[in-house]
TrEMBL record:
Record key words, sorted: DNA-binding
Organism, as annotated: Paenibacillus hemerocallicola
Protein name per Swiss-Prot or TrEMBL: Helix-turn-helix domain-containing protein
Pfam families (alphabetical): HTH_3, SinI
Domain HTH cro/C1-type: 6-61
Length: 109
């Protein structure tokens, strides 16, 4: 989904993958792999670079415009993600936390 939104935004500007890659200072192959959903979990840093090049907020890449505002990732959540990444929390550690939290909720009922 992220890749499709990047592709739509890029094509809306009339840019090739090479042009977007140059403007975002990201490898052309990386942009291509995101658009083809080979790279399904790009870092927030990469998404920020692509969003800046496309002149849109990161939210425009992360969220489906068809979804309601309550489902969108707001600035506070984005900041929490940035803080977690800066503090060294890995994706795997975060997934483990989520799994533990689900287990805890299920077993406390």
């Amino acid at each position: 989904m992220i890749g499709e939104r990047i592709r739509v935004l890029r094509l809306g500007k009339g840019w090739s993958i090479s042009e977007l890659a140059d403007k975002a200072n990201v490898a052309k192959s990386y942009i291509s792999s995101m658009e083809r959903d080979i790279q399904k979990n790009p870092s927030i840093h990469m998404l920020e670079k692509v969003a800046e090049a496309l002149e849109v907020p990161v939210d425009a890449i992360l969220n489906d415009p068809e979804r309601g505002p309550k489902e969108r990732l707001n600035d506070e959540w984005l900041e929490l993600v940035r803080e977690a990444m800066a503090s060294g929390v890995t994706k795997e550690q975060f997934r483990e936390y989520l799994e533990f939290n689900r287990w805890k909720r299920t077993n406390n009922k």
